[in-house]
């Protein structure tokens, strides 16, 4: 019954959103998580506070003995062996074996009404085992959260060494002490294990579910479905969608299902679908960020082609005639979102835009000369830098048609080389300067990526990486 309720709670409110980004945590990644987790569990268990104990026992031949144990402290605790395994459908289970602890405390006894005795003792426990399952869910903010369930501990053999007092007493009541302490310790361990597990949640809460990109955009990385746990990995589906800062508007396209290949040699795999990159195009185009004024100052001085009415007048005599001796300016902008396509080892971008040419009058007024419609095909290289995805573009080809002319008819084709040059030297470098800064990947806290590889596959980019947490 409660399992069903848990399952129901895991179903996100908005059904059937395909993730734009997928994250796979492999056994290698879990192993790294185990190392970090065990260090913190060990610290936690060293804080076990054993409350003072007292009791009485009938001990032949002296009759009733009352005893009390006080000031008990863990002096040593080791968790030399632990295994973290995946439990398909649920989460992971943690088995700790061969653990040991040593505890020091004081004892005091009273018997035959008035006889008192006291001293100290050392208790050693060996062969301590702890097993617990860790459930992995999605919290209300779309971040993963973990909790410990079904924790069981068993304490192996114990040895007690007494110091001080009358030694003949030791044998008489050591078995009582052994039992009382075992009971007490047994009750303490699982709650601390549960604490150590929930202590991971603040860390998981650092997942950048809304990653700030720049003044135009942010990326949503919240989970859109519950974690899927199989025999070999944990799969997370993240929204992976760019939005305008503040005003979230859905693009006219949606994510299509994709699945990551069965690679497991890295700790973590991140698949970024073309939906994610195309949602970026949608946002930047809508924000008017994909537009640029090109002036003559942006053309290298060595170029014989200048942005002036003399250069353009050579191809369109009307311009030379009506606007002699003026500098020009071009407005290059997209008119719809660029379409990015991922094919194996090949990233291409198709941009549809316009180029508007102006003559700059001596009083700085811009006189429009013509508007061209342009289709540009661009190749891109993508790479990971820090915890960001970056890129660089090269222009493949452009196709232009006349949109509107203020200077009569002319052969658009004759301007191909000029515009190819302008895009290559003035526009692409600006775009690349932005792409070089990168876009945040999903990340937790102070996460660094090492041994990172990137592959372009059909419909998505696959990043395989190991992670290293620093602090
Ligand atoms: C996980 O739990 C299952 C069932 O409780 C058990 O059979 C399995 O051995 C456990 N795996 C690990 C690694 O502890
Ligand atoms: C890359 O893909 C584009 C469009 O799908 C195609 O035109 C181009 O030839 C491809 N390039 C390579 C090197 O495969
Ligand atoms: C600027 O100069 C142009 C051409 O001489 C003229 O048509 C236009 O009215 C002038 N604009 C202003 C604001 O003076």
UniProtKB/TrEMBL annotation:
GO terms for cellular component: extracellular space. Residues 1-16 form the signal peptide. The keyword Transferase does not apply. It is found in: Secreted. The N-terminal region may be exposed to the interior of the granule, whereas the C-terminal portion may be embedded in the membrane. During phagocytosis and degranulation, proteases may be released and activated and cleave BPI at the junction of the N- and C-terminal portions of the molecule, providing controlled release of the N-terminal antibacterial fragment when bacteria are ingested. The cytotoxic action of BPI is limited to many species of Gram-negative bacteria; this specificity may be explained by a strong affinity of the very basic N-terminal half for the negatively charged lipopolysaccharides that are unique to the Gram-negative bacterial outer envelope. Residues 24-247 form the Lipid-binding serum glycoprotein N-terminal domain. Belongs to the BPI/LBP/Plunc superfamily. BPI/LBP family. One of its GO terms (biological process) is defense response to Gram-negative bacterium. Keywords: Antibiotic, Antimicrobial, Disulfide bond, Glycoprotein, Immunity, Innate immunity, Secreted, Signal. Residues 262-465 form the Lipid-binding serum glycoprotein C-terminal domain. InterPro entries: Bactericidal_perm-incr_a/b_dom (IPR017943), BPI/LBP (IPR030675), BPI/LBP/Plunc (IPR032942), Lipid-bd_serum_glycop_C (IPR001124), Lipid-bd_serum_glycop_N (IPR017942). Disulfide bonds join 151-190. This is Bactericidal permeability-increasing protein. Monomer. Homodimer; disulfide-linked. It holds the Pfam family LBP_BPI_CETP_C. GO terms for molecular function: lipid binding.
